[in-house]
Amino acid sequence: MTNNINTKSKEYYIQKTVAEDYDAERFTSLGGKMFDMFEKNVVISSLPQNKNAKILDAGAGSGRFTIEMLKKGYVNVHSCDFSPAMLDIIKSKVSTFGFQDQVKISREDVTNLSFSDNYFDYISCIRVTVNLDTLENVTKAIREFYRVCKPGGVVVFDIVNPMSIAYFGSKKNSMITMKKAKAIIKSIPGIRVKKVFGSRFLSQTAFEKTPASLMGVTNNIDKLFSYLFPFFCVRIYFVLTKD
């Protein structure tokens, strides 16, 4: 792995305290737990049936999805992140569950992966593109996922949408619309959109502040609006296949 880019997000996430507090700050409230379950289902539902398939959890962060993959019995998982502090969290979780023989852990830059072409059967990259800071880096990452994915393989990633209520008018260049993401994908020969859908018409912060008594109703309303107007959702998820 060659460190091609230095971004503010990289500087932030390499901090030990940030890594240690990552899960607790996002996924301990009722709203946070609900969204954690939703994202895990997004990743798990598209996994190949073959438990020996080569799986990449790119930008794995605290290893939320890596651990779920291992719990499901996948024995050839590669978990990578740029932050050494995050990698330490992943290693600790893997050790706790006794999954050391099923996973490889390494430091990688998603815009310049060290893996060979056509290597993985499945690649997930969740909550990462928004932290790449520029549209150029987002494009590089998507192209890298395509490069290291085998023909017939699947790539799952998400974007944070500047057209959403939560981020409307944001100037952060790595926030991109559904239309822009589709244009990037279309520019890559041999890759197809299998599925695209949005989640969270309201922000995760709004859910975290919602009283438990109203959570069910709020969640159902949010699901309806997310289904009807995915291009206005906070997060938009893409499931791609490589020809």
UniProtKB/TrEMBL annotation:
Keywords: Membrane, Methyltransferase, Transferase, Transmembrane, Transmembrane helix. SUPFAM superfamilies: S-adenosyl-L-methionine-dependent methyltransferases (SSF53335). It comes from the Archaea. One of its GO terms (molecular function) is methyltransferase activity. CDD domains: AdoMet_MTases. The chain crosses the membrane at residues 224-240. InterPro entries: Methyltransf_25, SAM-dependent_MTases_sf. Residues 55-153 form the Methyltransferase domain. GO terms for biological process: methylation. This is SAM-dependent methyltransferase. It comes from Methanosarcina vacuolata Z-761.
